[in-house]
Amino acid sequence: MARDPRLAQLGAFLHARRDETPPPASAESERRQVPGLRRGEVAALAFVSTEYYTRIEQGRVLPSTDVIRRIAGALGLDADQTRYALDLVAVADPPPANPEPSDPLRRLVERMGEVPAILVGPATSVLAWNSAAARLLTDFGAVPPEGRRYVQMLFTDPVFQSRFADLEAMRRTVIGIVRASTPAGPPSGDWIDELLRTDPCFKALWERNDVVRPHTRLRVRLRLPGGVEETWDQVVLQVVDDAHQRLIAFVPAG
After folding, report:
1. Domains 5-88 and 103-252 share a fold
2. 3-state secondary structure of 220
3. From what superkingdom does this record's organism come (predicted)?
4. CA distance 189 to 183
5. Which of 80, 104, 155, 231 has most Cβ atoms within 10 angstroms of its Cβ?
């Protein structure tokens, strides 16, 4: 029987975080074969058996939320990481295959005037944008719909990439958001497979299994046309009746 993709992703996520967790000070003199904690050490800290924790990492068992919280404490997970692990063991509706913004939302984005704004859907697909966003970031209309994802364009669109003074940090953040936004299982798609084959940077960041929860504001350093750098606030507003759509507005930092 095939493993539940949510549990497989949970196991990969916990394994990655375990590798990053420093071993206890008492183990400094030991000769260790793993970069972080051993499975048995995590199990002891979480008050479960090593066999049970091993089965969790292998995606063979559905742990309770209480066990997830104890493992999160053992691994020192932050709030975003803990929420992601809890989402993976909860029942979640998958995002629609072909989301469409409502007409009022599309008109709102278009009429936000000089405030650059874009509407994103599942996997950061860009559903709508205004002319101010096109001037600030890139000509979204010139990008084929199948390649018009915020995360994807951070690796494929040279103009879009050039707008971020710290491109590496933005890539890490948006990849983390894509992972955290798909609690029904690991993200998938032809575009992911293609980037994994062709872009070593994407592959390295993707396989870290990092997660970032979308927050109301993200401060970014943008490189404007002409090379001038400015600090902007990326303000994120959740669409009430569609949890998979978010309005992103860019406002110069005060």
Report:
1. no
2. strand
3. Bacteria
4. 15
5. 155
- CA distances 91 to 9, 41, 78, 150, 162, Å, are 14, 29, 22, 27, 39
User: Which among 80, 89, 106 has a CA at the least distance from the CA of 242?
Assistant: 106
Is pLDDT larger for residue 28 or for residue 68?
68
Q: How much is the average pLDDT of 46-68?
A: 91
CATH number of 103-252: 3.30.450.180
Give residues with Cβ within 8 angstroms of 207, minimum separation 6. none
Integer Cα distance of 138 and 159 in angstroms: 6
Q: pLDDT of 167-222, one tens digit each?
A: 999 999 999 988 887 655 567 788 999 999 999 999 999 989 888 887 788 899 99
The structure's pTM equals 0.74
Amino acid letter, 33: Q
Q: Cβ(196)–Cβ(164) under 8 Å?
A: no
**Identity (one letter) of the amino acid at 187?**
P
C-alpha torsion sign, points 234, 196, 15, 28: negative
Q: Could you tell me which residues come within 8 angstroms of residue 228 by beta carbon, excluding any fewer than 6 positions away?
A: none
The residue ranges of every structural domain in the chain are: 5-88, 103-252
Pairing state between β 217-223 and 126-129: unpaired
Under a CB-based contact definition with an 8 Å cutoff, are residues 148 and 118 in contact? no
In the chain, the amino acid numbered 143 is: V
